[in-house]
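Please study the protein below:
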Amino acid sequence: MFQIPIIGAFLEAAGTILYKKLANRHRVTYRDFLVYGFLSIVLVSLPFLYFFWRIDPLAGSNINLAILFLIITISIFANYFSFFAFKHKDLSKIQSIRLTLPLFTILLAFILSFFFEIYSNERNYYILFFAFIASITLFLSNIRKEHFVFDKYSWSMLLGSFLFAIELTLSKPLVQFYHPITFYFIRSLFILIIVFAIFRDNLSTLKPVGKGLFLASALFWVGYRAILYYGYGAFGIVFTTTILILSPVLIYLASWLFLKEKVTRRQVFSSIIIVVCILGTIWIGN
């Protein structure tokens, strides 16, 4: 069933491209992004809940509710910092920094494996080898010398990526108590309630194209997160994250085909290394 995370990589790539369009071509503010983005996710998720609603009673324990609250809080800040960073005029720089997310996630899962039983399967050193090679290659594929000069947008994306990594890593203990779509819906619903309460008086009126992009991106993100949470429970964080590193490779391809962006030789070479690492991970994982 390793094919499932590969499908997730395609969905993540599509969702990311649509979010880039919203941030840069439709002048969506971070307030609009947070409220309308999570509203779209909640609306898109609703029809699926009829078929996939599942919550284990243990999800209501004090410790699990505390973890859920922490995930929701961290996610709000992660989304804010990441979307703010997308306003930078040099998107290649911001995208390069965003590619630290898989590395942060793998490192956190590996560290937690020494302290908590639920993360014990994250210490497969053969998979970790391929995971680190793939994630470091991914980061180096886009980085340039001038990218090391950080401004507020760069720091914002780095912080957003690190917070997303914390959120994703903390999700693993909870995914066993929910269906993946149920978990993503509950997470997104609480985030929507909080951000709407904060920003309800400062929202813009969206054009039909903007509404369509939000709903389309939400459909991709619901599918991606459902697969990601399933992968965490079935294969582990490190394995799933390594497979999902295929997503930036697909973004390179889609940007070249549809957005007419240039792809460098370094990106092509790094993509080959990443694909080899993914194949190695799949071979060991099976």
